[in-house]
Amino acid sequence: MQVALLDDDHHQLDVLTRAVEALGYTGHRFATGGALLQALQRATFDLMLVDWELPDMPGLDVLRTLRSRHGVRTPVIFVTHRDDERDVVQALTAGADDYVIKPVRGAELKARMLALLRRSYPGDDAGLRHGGFLLQPATGTAFFEGEPIELKQREFDLALCLFRQLGQVLSRAYLMQTVWGRGEDLPTRTLDTHISAVRSKLGLRPERGYRLSAVYGHGYRLEVIAPGMSAAETRE
User: Fold this and answer.
1) pLDDT computed for residue 15 by the predictor
2) In terms of C-beta density within 10 A (0-12 exposed, 13-18 middle, 19 or more buried), how is residue 72 classed?
3) Which of 63, 100, 128, 214 has the fewest CB atoms nearer than 10 Å to its CB?
């Protein structure tokens, strides 16, 4: 899991980083809202921890920009000293998924992160279903309309990652880090080859109701295609 940590207090960032890493996740630290928004042009995160008081813009504005302008559905936990009920309501209304009051208690924060991730990315126990597809993480097996599809482990992990965040643009770095546990030192052709294999083996094409496409300068996106759309319409 890749977690964005937004706070201009280095001590607080250390606290958040320790909580994230204790769960085996990778924390990406940002001291300004602008830095996080800029990073989202090339990176993807599974979870974000956002402070309210920032030097360049309120965390609330960062959240609104994430939800409206960027269309990011990534779960967000607000981590702030503000404990007034009106502030909590305002943050949740703007799109936050949870709210933690500082000083942060590590055990509580870890429990809230795990609970939010379970709600945001369900299906690991019973399997992840989308349309005729069923992916079962426990066994690493995939099915389409009950028929098994033979996938190598990396191909399955990549397919699971794409289906978990259906409709979202996922950066190349995020996919490589999530599937291979490596980023910059992994040949980019490796990802392209596995994307091609997943597309072919799962039949992720408009006639089956899906499109797996490259997003220039960013990464890949798996999306649902409305039945009956023409080839020209799917490219728009």
Assistant:
1) 93
2) buried
3) 214
Per-residue burial over 14-44, b if 16 or more Cβ lie within 10 Å, else e, is ebbbebbeeeebbbbbbbbbeebbebbeebb
Residues in the chain: 236
Provide the domain count of the chain. Answer: 2
| Whether residues 63 and 153 fall in one domain | no
Residue 12 in this model has a pLDDT that exceeds 70 = yes
Q: Which amino acid is at 77?
A: I
Claim to verify: residue 100 and residue 141 sit in the same structural domain = no
**Three-class DSSP category at 12:** helix
Helices marked H in the chain — which ranges?
Answer: 10-22, 33-39, 59-68, 85-94, 106-120, 153-164, 172-180, 188-202, 231-234
Is the pLDDT score of 20 beyond 90? yes
Question: Do 95 and 189 have their domain in common?
Answer: no
Domain of 203, CATH number, reads 1.10.10.10
Task: Tell me the residue range of the domain where 53 lies.
Answer: 2-120
User: Following DSSP, what letter does each residue of 19-65 receive, concatenated?
Assistant: HHHHTT-EEEEESSHHHHHHHTTT---SEEEE-S--SSS-HHHHHHH
Asked if the model's pLDDT at residue 226 lies above 80, the reply is no
- Enumerate residues 6+ apart whose C-beta is below 8 A from 106: 15, 18, 19, 22
- The CATH number given to whatever domain includes residue 43 is 3.40.50.2300
- The residue type found at 168 is Q
